[in-house]
Here is the input.
Amino acid sequence: MSTFKQIVLASRPKGAVVAGNFRLEDAPVPSLADGQVLVRNHYLSLDPYMRGRMEDAKSYSAPQVIGEVMIGGTVGEVVESKNPKFAVGDKVVGMLGWAEMGVSDGVMLRKVDTSHIPLSAYLGAVGMPGMTAWYGLTQIMQPKAGETIVVSAASGAVGSVVGQLAKLRGVRAVGIAGGPEKCAYVVNELGFDACIDYKAGNLIADLAAATPDGIDAIFENVGGEIFDACIARMNPFGRIALCGMIAGYNGEPMALNNVRTFLTMRLSLRGFIVAEHMDLWPEGLKELGTLVATGKLKFRESVAQGLASAPEAFIGLLKGKNFGKQLVKLV
Amino acid sequence: MSTFKQIVLASRPKGAVVAGNFRLEDAPVPSLADGQVLVRNHYLSLDPYMRGRMEDAKSYSAPQVIGEVMIGGTVGEVVESKNPKFAVGDKVVGMLGWAEMGVSDGVMLRKVDTSHIPLSAYLGAVGMPGMTAWYGLTQIMQPKAGETIVVSAASGAVGSVVGQLAKLRGVRAVGIAGGPEKCAYVVNELGFDACIDYKAGNLIADLAAATPDGIDAIFENVGGEIFDACIARMNPFGRIALCGMIAGYNGEPMALNNVRTFLTMRLSLRGFIVAEHMDLWPEGLKELGTLVATGKLKFRESVAQGLASAPEAFIGLLKGKNFGKQLVKLV
Here is the structure.
């Protein structure tokens, strides 16, 4: 194989992302310099944060450059190595982007053990999404046994882990998801105490019924009306981990109306990016890896086949069409 | 004197507070039981939190009961005592309400030293408002030297202390106040680095000019558009102490539009009530008392004369007509 496929950002979205914002290209397989590793990617991770990178706006990281390979987490196998720390055949997790292959200097590449944990899980429950859940729950929400938390996008890669970790700590976990199928999964498979279908049109009443003792902490992935409805039910000294606002990624207004509740209930809110807290990853990944390996932490994957399917899969993710962690299978 | 004047809540406001929501009454001077103290109040403190108590809404404290004496902080002098801890002539601070006299069992009454600190200051810079400023600054905003903070209602009893404490810590302090007279006072008398007149109609541009390096922490007393404009200029990891939202106390919409910034800038926000943190009062009051006694912490008072003037003074406070700490002189 002398070339491989990759996808670059062709243009910035105007409103919703469209397939034409991406371009599939052939790239030559490079020759390695000393210290470099060539990786054949097996799975690409699709995550909501990528939507933010497509904008040319002030945010926590630089925008994706037009014409360059789209950023993305990957797992794969080393196929050539001029780095003594990596051998051919090693399974690795890295950030090699929307591409079938990638070259790394080894700094951001991590060998993983697939004897008890599937390779793809390192992009989900035992990877960045799992750590996002773990950080928000343990560092910001800090629920005590018997308290009630609410998790939006509860069937997703992050939300599903938040609720399961909470249940393991004796916390009442209430999810919010779109549609009866996802809600059934959240309750019956993941073990949440309840799940509210925000598409059913009774968000406020359903939320009240599912949180009879109010809400002590929120893990927020969505923003907008759903977030506002949750804030209105917060108990004194409630904590909010603000992880994402996917409802507003196309520029939709995301106003919060229940701001007064932050004062009257003495709430705390913190926005966070898990990549800024790498010091806690070893502790978090240890718990997450053990739980996955022992079957105590469940996850579900939506797998698109082939790199060319990535744009449509990503557009679907932004609309909530995925069910669980969205991956693209590359081999 | 066999009777004294007191003001009770006559009715709850429908929108803005009006004088008719209060009723001036005569009350008999009571006979003391064992352990009780009779206090002649010298000053009544008027504070924005009282507006919240007038509502019959879920909040951090029970609503003011109709027909009962309005809640309020007071300083005064013991005129009769059946409590061994208090002697006639003692100067005391307490919560004896909108009344010329009051009876206390001594539990919530505190003797104060007026040899270096004026009695009225115990209702302001060395009292609840000063502690509110101290708590928000030192426990939530935690600015480092060289950082920039913004304080709304900067000429008020709380905001004026926030900025002065910040300046003593080497922090750039930018105030927001209504009108050129208040702004001149904030800069020239209190020593803030800049003050923005929100009534001048250039809030966003003026804020940008006064905070060229962005904003690292906010002390929020007002809410609404002013708060939103400040959030838009926050630096990464900015902290927000949410103390009050006086712009919305009559039920005005207080929506925040810049919610996405909480995520992109990884902001922290916490609403707080200083009365819930009594453990820190000794430390805070020690600093505040020393600064007032040595002239390093300045304050200004708006003094209304006589209990009957309290309703109009309170209505003025809610409209920003006061200049500094609003008091009512009772003797």
Remarks:
- The interface with chain A takes residues 52, 57-60, 223, 227, 236, 242-245, 248, 253-257, 259-260, 262-273, 276 of chain B (CB under 8 Å).
- Chain B has a mean pLDDT of 95.
- Chain B is about 25% helix and 25% strand.
- The radius of gyration of chain B is 20 Å.
